[in-house]
Amino acid sequence: MARISIIIVNYNVRYFLEQCLLSVERAARGLDTEVIVVDNNSEDDSLAMLQRQFPQVKLIANRENTGFSKANNQGIAASSGEFVLLLNPDTVLQEDSLSAPLNFMEIHPECGALGVHMIDGTGNFLPESKRGLPTPAVAFFKMTGLASIFKKSKLFGRYHLHYLHPETNHAVDVLSGAYMFIRRSALDKAGWLDERFFMYGEDIDLSYRIQQAGFINVYFAGTRIIHYKGESTKKQSARYVKVFYEAMILFARKHYASRSAGLFALLITLAIQVRAFGALLSRYFARIWQPLTDFAVLYAGFFAITRYWELNNKFVRAYYPPEYFLWHLPAYITVILFFTWLSGGYDRPLRWKNLSRGAVAGSLILFSAYAFLPKTLQFSRAILGLGCIWSWVAFIGWRVAVQALSRGRFNQEENTGRRWLLVAGADEARRIRQFPSGAHIAGEISPQRADNPDELLTCALVHEADTLVFNLNELPVRKALALMQQLKGKGLRFKTVPPGAAFVIGSDSKDGRGEWTGEQDRYALALPQVMRKKRTFDVLFALALLPLSPLLAFTQGGRRLLRFLPQVLLGRRTWLGYPAGTIGLPPVRVPVIRLSSGYTGLDAHPDWERKLYENYALQYDPVKDLRMLWKVLFGGR
Predict the structure, then answer these.
(1) How far, CA to CA in Å, does 47 sit from each of 37, 38, 79, 179?
(2) Which of 189, 276, 322, 378 could lock 238 by a disulfide, CB 3.0 to 4.6 Å apart?
(3) Is 279 helix (H, G, I), strand (E, B) or coil?
(4) For 109-215, where are the E strands, in sequence order?
(5) Residue 232 confidence class, pLDDT cut points 50, 70, 90
(6) What's the mean pLDDT in 311-325?
(7) Residue 291: inside a domain, yes or no?
(8) Phi then psi for 201, rounded to 5 degrees?
(9) Where are the alpha helices (DSSP H) in 477-621?
(10) Partners of residue 120 on adjacent β-strands
(11) Which is nearest to 86 in space by CA: 192, 224, 218?
């Protein structure tokens, strides 16, 4: 019988899970623990990694995503510990993140559950470490924004309890399910997780029931963990808003009087509509505002050049027809923007070379295609040439201007995250330099010298590094977290290398997803610009099939492709590829034609099939896709 049972529910976060388990191993030294991982049918290679690297971990592999609550209950049923720790896979424990809470719980038998001081990947305190009960009043203050305006108010700020100091222990109403250290006797008395909560809200419900069972919940400031938020879900999506607030409605109907629950449900329903609509607008605007700004700036430039040309540089002064401004100029600009998008000019983080390359490529393509237009559609090569030059100047110019006016706050990610200062010894630094990260290693500093945050900051400034990479094989997690908090707000970002791992993990935003840099980065299909080329090919090939569909319907290969044409256009499938979820390879959409189709003997040689998929991911080429699809159409493949 173990003293502490650690239960981790995993869903498609293999690298975060590995780092989490490595930190658990460190924190569990000298303690009687058992670790249970419940996998909710992950499509990555989480299971293979667990069996290979952590054979001592008890694994429950579900064949479907059963949800967070049910999966945790499966883990609890398989556990034997006097204490149960519910732990998210996107967390990193300090060396004392098990022993310190255990000691506290032993001294305070009235404590039924305990949460800890959580920070995000930037070193900032996560307010959900301690929360108040979401009563109708508390929910109203949060939804109306009063809780954000009056954070320190004991009336308005009760959701995140900002008026309670994060460096002091407190009795609180609600703990986070990311780290919930629970006394088994309290869990058995209060009841396990309510499986009606598929995701979100289950920690609020369980915290409340533990209090109802006669125990107290404690926010414990004596240890810290990192919590990389949003790994299994996109927290800014409309779906997240809907699922989260529906969980709040379920909680209200379960625990509040019918009248209060009805009012609460009404408020929450309104909040769902408003927040979901706002989330959709926000995500959509975040994607299109730069292309829209480029379009407006380019149009203004083309318009001014045309007007000037009309009045000053024509043999016969005359004005261009309205359709030139209504249709031709937008068409020119759309071509330039399309090739800018295709070149990665709108990817994040922004790369000046991608932006410049896209503007130049689009201009050259436009200028070349112009020669093949009918004479009636050719207005002026000079205007087109000057406009193309303007496009490059404008793309760079307005971004530089906004960057200067915002004192570097605008798009600062374009110059950050790519120059690493390694906090590692010489041997480990050499190992990390071999990672296919795409980053420039600006320098390194030994963990011993990094003990002084001022010296570490000076070293980063001297090397012009924007990111500190902590090697957790040599630097204690406690020290890394302390340095993150001491250096937050200094313009640095933080990443970690788990002990012995071949990947780097980090998160640059409190609300953003964590990111990892590892072995998949060597594949071309892991790059967003290459995936965009593949998607562009899919769409163009689908559009090319449409006018040919009456003829293709008479061929077996044609009928096969036409059947899936709508799904390809909608982005649900890709024309060619390897099976979705192939372990160790970049994720792709479900293919209409599998790469191995038409090859003989692969069934007897699965390693050959794997090599075929690896080569495709390593060296993706749309021309190869075209050749293979041509064979499908006319070669009977």
Answers:
(1) 10, 10, 20, 22
(2) 276
(3) helix
(4) 111-119, 170-172, 179-183
(5) very low
(6) 74
(7) yes
(8) 85, -20
(9) 477-487, 528-552, 556-569, 606-618
(10) none
(11) 192
